[in-house]
Amino acid sequence: MSGPASSPVLELRDVTRVHGEGEAAVQALRGVSFAAYAGELVAVMGPSGSGKSTLLTLAGGLDTPTSGVVSVEGVDLAGAGAVGRARMRRTSLGYVFQDFNLIPALTAAENVALPLELDGRSGREARALAREALAEVGITELADRFPDHMSGGQQQRVAIARAVVGERRLVLADEPTGALDTETGEDVLRLLRARCDAGAAGVMVTHEARHAAWADRVVFLRDGVVVDETGADHVESLADATAQR
Amino acid sequence: MSRLLTAWRLPLRLARRDAMRHRARALLVVAMIALPVLAVTTADVLIQTATVSGPESVDRRMGASQALVSVSAETNPLQQAPDPDVGYPVFSGDTTLTAPSAEQVSSLLDGARLVELRRTVGQVVTEAGRVGAQALEVDLADPVADGLVRLTSGRLPRSDGEVVVNDALVADGFRVGDRLGFEVGSEVAGGATEPVVVGTAESTTYRDLPFVAGPLGSLGLDSDEQTQWLVDGGPVTWPSVQRLNELGALVASRAVIEDPPPASEQYAEVRAQSGTDEGLLPVLALITVMVLLEVVLLAGPAFAVGARAQQRSLALMVASGGTPAQSRRVVLAGAVVLGGTGAVVGVLLGLGLARLLQPVLQGFSQTWFGPFDVPWLHLLAVAAFGLLSAFLAAAVPAVLASRQDVVAVLAGRRGDAPASRRSPVLGAVLLAAGIGASAYGALQPSGGELAIAFGAIPAVLGMILLVPAVLSLVARGAGRLPLTLRYAVRDAHRHRTRTVPAVAAVAATVAGVVALGIGLSSDQREAEETYVSSVADGVGVVRAYEQPARWDALRGAVEREAPGVQVVVQQGLTDSDGGYTSVQRPEGAGFISAGSALGSMVLVSDGPLPPGLVGLSDADARRAEQALGDGRSVVFTGPGVRVDDGEATVVRSTFDEQTGQDQTLARVTLPATYLPLSDPYDGPSAILTPAAAAELGQEPSVVSLLVTGGLDGDQEDTVQEALKGVDPSASIYVERGFQPESDALIAQLVLLGLGGVLMLGGTLTATFLALSDARPDLATLAAVGASPRTRRGVAAAYALVVGGIGSVLGALVGSIPGVAVTWPLTSSPGFGGGGPTGPFLDVPWLMLLALVVALPVLTALVVGASARSRLPLVSRLD
Ligand SMILES: Nc1ncnc2c1ncn2[C@@H]1O[C@H](COP(=O)(O)OP(=O)(O)O)[C@@H](O)[C@H]1O
Ligand SMILES: [Mg+2]
């Protein structure tokens, strides 16, 4: 477990998010504080509706908190403005969703190059970097394929490649294995793990304790509140327990 | 520039791929952009081709010569446009010149050789009578005449006893070796010139008008009034033209027409006169705006659905750091790709279609078209227009796409922006402004059409803004409708971004059709109501202007060509001796006539009325005959004006040129019966007894032949030609009552057809798009046991909702300018105090019913029949 001595890549301080107003108001998160450091993979677990996805969208700046502070690499996302948050998504952090991660009209390489192209990098440079990223996830040969000609696992690999392409140091994954069979899911998790070992910070929402075993830490959410936080050791035993079942 | 390219590279790639992935939708948009572009391109190219521009006309005007110089017998120094056929020359009135001689002209042109040319319209004597013909006299063998005619068979004339004729005269029976009788004006040449036809040649100007050409003297043309020369020499410069102008000569110079002098060197006064047609510009602008609006509305839904299908892609882009501007650009890039393709395809197909139609159109024209003319600059503008319309159609979907709730879309939910509360208010304001403009235009004494036409723009825009409000109104009342209709209504309301433009497109179309339809049929109604027969239906009137007329021969010609008809010889007083007869009525008798259709204002009869006299009641007709029989003359009064029998004063007078005053030759007072004519302005003024005419010192003469017994159209044509054969100035007019112009009916049908096509297009797009959007809902319906036919039902219901709401709204909005325009269009001052003055309003109810009821139902049936009946089982967004 990385020491808290170094500054966190992602930090949430007393974050609240209320959806809607009046009687229809829903408290998705209530006072969540949480940090992820370079080199560690954090799993976020909790029942459906507990606020896991909300936490990730806040972390990625797709949404802003009702109160509290979200910062990435020391930058307060709320203060960065919409344009600044978009730039952060192009250069500092990447998303992986459960499925339909790829733009169907773009090839694998083009999907990976997307953040770079959006950032105004030259086409050649973007493609070169994209190929590197594809090589890292081991599917260089799929570079020119369109998403409809790839399996779900391949698509998730491309999505991971896109999330890490360039120098980005925060990977946010919302149930990245949810639509995959067990074995393929393991592959995807291995990739995420490797990326964190190489120095990135990862936050992964998952349902399954077995998957949480790949993480350094697990954060449990219930009704928008962090109810428990365990270290890696506990995670191991958790995984054993599920494996026995 | 490179930054711009970088910014658009990704969006364009996405748009291109998206178009390839959704070919049906892409094709739809391309077709909607391409069709108007195609239509305008075809029309433009054909118009440009049919129009013979100055430089294009040079060869047919002056052959191979350098210039055509025209001088009149009496002339003034003049100022002309570079091309004398454009506008009118300005003459300075102070000094009257005699026509410059050939030597004078030649010396101003460095001694160029001049070849005289004469042109006129005359008559060729045919077997059946006479036909008008274009005639040309020039030495066709001279190289400078090359290009005036095209020899098609035989040879060119070698002496002034020889001519060539064109196919139109060959069709009249002339062959090589025949003699051809030719007359200029009404002077019967009497065999003075009867040249021999030695070949056939087509004029390079006239296509199917009779045409004859030969050397000077061959046709007996004179140059008393005007002399023309072809110039064989060096190019005639603008300064030379101006020097000739000072001598009173008008010059069409090849060099000047092909390369006009700069405006600064042209005559200011002539330039000022030949301004562009200013009335045309606003009309063109109006048409452009309306077509643009229509295309935008038709293509809008496709872009709305395209953007919706792309919403996940756009959300992923945002998650990867894309900005709203980049999202907008992706949707707009679709417009660039599809609009660009549509524009290019439209222009190319339009060019092809124009090429195909060129010979067809040429077949309808009496003159030869110029060369196939591609106005590239226009076409560029037309293509840009296509692109612009696509861009505008994509604008709203693009903005909405950039504002979508990314988190919701990523979570698999849909996020439509709530309806604006301000737009219905703005819509009502615009609609009111449109109505105001229409009312203003209707009340203008003249020129109100423009205000009404431009008022239609805010009215239609206002209506578009009101469509969402109407949709929600309909949706609220949908509770009792059957399931499919209820679903369609509610879905249409929920997905306003695609429904509104579709409904608006249908509405705008219907509005246009209804407005034009009401205008057209009211115009027809006016023509019908204000039509006044000159004589009774079916009666023919033969008149001849050349004196003395050969009435017996004319009568013989009629009886020979139309056996079975009755011919009545009508007597009257003529003004052939320079005198004229006027009848003085009591004050207030209110008789105004524009001239009698029966040959003279003052007829003479000892009893019977002229057959075909209109405007007299039966009782009055009997009284008239009685009066004439009793030796009383009949004098007509204005409509409904009763004057007691009494006396009338008839004056025979002549105009004295010396004093400039009328001089009375005879004045008599006669016993007269006054009778009103209901439609006075083609009627005679009075019918005198022969005795009364004698008292005036006038011998009645024949003024017309009245033909009764029903001449049909073919007989009328043969009688006409036979009459011309006897006397070129004679003609027959057969009254056939009001003939509804077939053009008007055709225009209505075309309008209806166009409206139908556009409505079908708008409805089909919207329905097709709605169905692909409704997949998840249909899957849910299938899951709860809906039959596969439900899909068809939903499709038909959706089409009915879009078409029905659209056409009702459109009919309402279109009737505003439609009704308003009948004021300026159909109000007439009315003649002679009588007759209806309008405005006339005729609402074409049948057409309206067809538009509002039949077309939407038909469209719904077509849509229902063509929709696939399979229900989707999975419910996934792209
Ligand atoms: N846009 C929204 N509007 C209203 N409620 C929302 C919205 N987004 C999420 N919620 C609610 O917030 C709570 C947390 O949602 P979410 O973060 O998606 O939970 P999880 O991912 O853990 O299932 C849920 O009760 C959900 O219904
Ligand atoms: Mg979730």
UniProtKB/TrEMBL annotation, chain A:
The UniProt keyword set, sorted, is: ATP-binding, Nucleotide-binding, Transport
PROSITE patterns reported for this sequence: ABC_TRANSPORTER_1, ABC_TRANSPORTER_2
InterPro entries registered for this protein in UniProt: AAA+_ATPase, ABC_transporter-like_ATP-bd, ABC_transporter-like_CS, ABC_transpr_LolD-like, MacB-like_ATP-bd, P-loop_NTPase
Q: Does the keyword ATP-binding apply?
A: yes
SMART domains recorded for this chain? AAA
Could you cite one Gene Ontology molecular function of this protein? ATP hydrolysis activity
Domain ABC transporter: from-to ranges: 10-245
What is the protein name stated in its UniProt record? ATP-binding cassette domain-containing protein
Organism source for this protein? Nocardioides flavescens
UniProtKB/TrEMBL annotation, chain B:
Q: How does it sit in the membrane?
A: Multi-pass membrane protein
- InterPro entries linked to this entry: ABC3_permease_C (IPR003838), Lipoprotein-release_system (IPR051447)
Reading the lineage from the top rank, the first entry is: Bacteria
Pfam assignment, any one: FtsX
Q: Where is the ABC3 transporter permease C-terminal domain?
A: 287-405, 751-865
Q: Where do transmembrane segments lie in this chain?
A: 280-309, 330-356, 376-402, 423-443, 455-478, 499-520, 745-771, 797-825, 845-867
The biological processes this protein is annotated with in GO are:
lipoprotein localization to outer membrane
**Subcellular locations according to the entry:** Cell membrane
Q: Belongs to which family?
A: Belongs to the ABC-4 integral membrane protein family. LolC/E subfamily.
From the Swiss-Prot or TrEMBL record, give the protein name.
FtsX-like permease family protein
